[in-house]
Specification:
By secondary structure, the protein is α+β, with helices and mostly antiparallel strands. The chain has two domains: about 90 residues, Ribosomal Protein L25, Chain P (Beta Barrel), CATH 2.40.240.10; about 120 residues, Ribosomal protein L25, C-terminal domain (RNA Polymerase Alpha Subunit, Chain A, domain 2), CATH 2.170.120. About 20% of the residues lie in helices and about 40% in strands. The chain is built from five helices and 13 strands. The strands form three sheets. It has a six-stranded mixed barrel. A four-stranded mixed β-sheet has the order 10-7-9-12, with no helix packed on it. The longest helix has 14 residues. It is extended.
């Protein structure tokens, strides 16, 4: 993963008021820590930081007063409405150092007909070098049949990466798709347990009544009577 260079400024003001002033200036308050050092409070450029953090586990090269340090985003706080970045916690890393991070899972391909694909984990924890973290883990389900299960140990990882979670964890499960009749039966059973009366289609009931009324036996004639 390529490094994204960001130039930061040291932050000397703290508190909610100071943070609001920083955001009004289109910047992001952040803290840089790790490797036993004291936390360093910094301010990052807003637009560049927003673009950089669109990628999961973005490797950042933070320049503070002419000194560059590598860091990974540990926690990103976003505004729930504006989706802007409110604050970033950055953890220092070194080249060659291994870290454990959550990497997104991407499922590709089409499973066999009449199957249902269930993704149990949208991310997987892997251990990789800080400078070689994959952006995603791709899982191909092309042609897979019902009953197929993909475990964490089945994943194909980049060279130098290892699973950082239970190898037996279920990632993707492929089951037989439920038929419409089975779904209706299951729904009816659930409604019965809740004491819900089955609904009656009033239009169908009305048509049946009209049909029975029009078939009056007294109005029918036989072939012999017509003669």
């Amino acid at each position: 993963m390529p490094e994204v260079k960001l130039t930061a400024e040291l932050r000397t003001e703290f508190g909610k008021g100071a943070a609001r002033r920083i955001r009004r200036a289109h910047k992001v308050p952040a803290v840089l820590y790790g490797h036993g050092t004291d936390p360093v409070h910094i301010t990052l450029p807003g637009h560049e930081t927003l673009l950089a953090l669109r990628t999961a586990n973005a490797l950042l090269s933070i320049d503070v007063d002419g000194t560059s340090q590598l860091a990974l985003p540990k926690q990103v706080q976003r505004d729930p409405l504006k989706h802007s970045i409110e604050h970033v916690d950055l953890v220092l890393v070194r080249r060659g150092e291994k870290v454990t991070v959550d990497v997104p899972v991407v499922v590709e391909g089409e499973a066999a007909a009449e199957t249902l694909v269930v993704v149990d984990h949208n991310t997987v924890a892997i251990e990789a070098e800080a400078t070689h973290i994959p952006q995603q883990i791709v899982i191909s389900i092309e042609g897979m049949t019902a009953g197929t299960q993909i475990l964490a140990s089945d994943l194909v990882l980049p060279s130098g990466s290892t699973i950082g979670m239970d190898p037996e964890a279920l990632i993707v499960n492929i089951t037989a798709a439920q038929s419409e009749a089975a779904a209706e039966a299951e729904l009816a059973e659930a409604e019965a347990e809740l004491g819900i009366e089955p609904t009656v289609n009033e239009d169908v009931e009305s048509e049946e009544d009209e049909s029975s009324e029009s078939a009056d036996p007294d109005e029918s004639t036989t072939e012999g009577e017509d003669q």
